[in-house]
Predict the 3D structure of the following.
Amino acid sequence: MSRDSDGDGTADEITTYTFDANGNRTREEREQNGVTTSIRKMSYFNSILCPDLGEGLVHKLQVVIPESGVWRFALCGSTFQNVLALSSSDYCDSTLFYASDGCSNGDASVDIRLEEAGTYYLTVAGKGETDKGNYNLEITRLQGLDAPSIEKDKISVYPNPARNQITVSSSITLGSYRIFNTLGEKVLSGSLANPTIQIESLNSGSYFLMLDDKNSNQTYHKKFIK
């Protein structure tokens, strides 16, 4: 956009806008008489897609967890079909959990034990391309009888550190597993019909093992080293 304030046919002020792929203005640069006078940059929490989570636009939230314990993340009563993902390192990352249902109306809800207080990265996304609207997010620390099903000793992973395989021992009926590296990239996944997981193909390092309860919407996470 240009403006000729003195009517001499030469632009006295030029404003240049830059937009992202979703049409949000991300940069505004103003120039007067050939000299840049200001640059303004804008960022948006809900301007991107996360294809690995869902087809809809996402909303990114920083969540400060004040203490360790069992926490419930729920979108029950929202106006669109949704999914939730939580990570300790970045948005669009489901290293700690991914939930696509759990509420009575099909909205996303999950209970998870978080071992450390601190800042976490929560992503709310629409399941489909047209799924968007208002959502109700509740984050609650469960205590006492409200949190009987996520005890530390219900699941163990050994050996740790491991070399060629790990074994999952659990009193819970687990249906599937996902393994992520420290960058949040999924490197292995499969069914837990057999409690032994072959990890020969993994490089040495730290990994997060996500375990999905076959009879509920709960996701459990364990860390192991190869």
